Amino acid sequence: MRGRGGDQRSQAQSAERRAEREALVAKLKDRYEAGASISELAEEAGFSEVHTYRRLVEAGTKMRRPGPRSSKRSKIVNDSDGS
User: Fold this and answer.
1) Is 61 in contact with 32 (CB distance < 8 Å)?
2) What mean pLDDT, rounded, does the chain reach?
3) Does residue 59 fall inside a structural domain?
4) What is the reported pLDDT for 53?
5) Is pLDDT above 70 for 37?
6) Does the residue 17 lie in any domain?
7) In the structure, what pLDDT confidence band is assigned to residue 51 with cuts at 50, 70 and 90?
8) What is the count of structural domains for the chain?
9) How far, in Å, are 6, 7, 11 from residue 1 at the CA level?
10) Would you say residue 72 lies in a domain?
11) What is the rounded distance in angstroms from the CA atom of residue 73 to the CA atom of residue 7?
């Protein structure tokens, strides 16, 4: 059976992890508001796009309308016209 010291240690570790997550989400929010895409942020943070989106919404981020999925894709579509 664990003593009180173990509980306090796990609470401190939990609080530390929570603070790290909050700092990461604040950074993601700043980058998103500066123009980074959810895809870019998800890749950088190692999260899925859905997880990243949800964290941004929970942080009160004003979300942009979805744009083109990728500039590479639109270039491929435009180049495949045969012109």
Assistant:
1) yes
2) 84
3) yes
4) 97
5) yes
6) yes
7) very high
8) 1
9) 10, 11, 17
10) no
11) 52
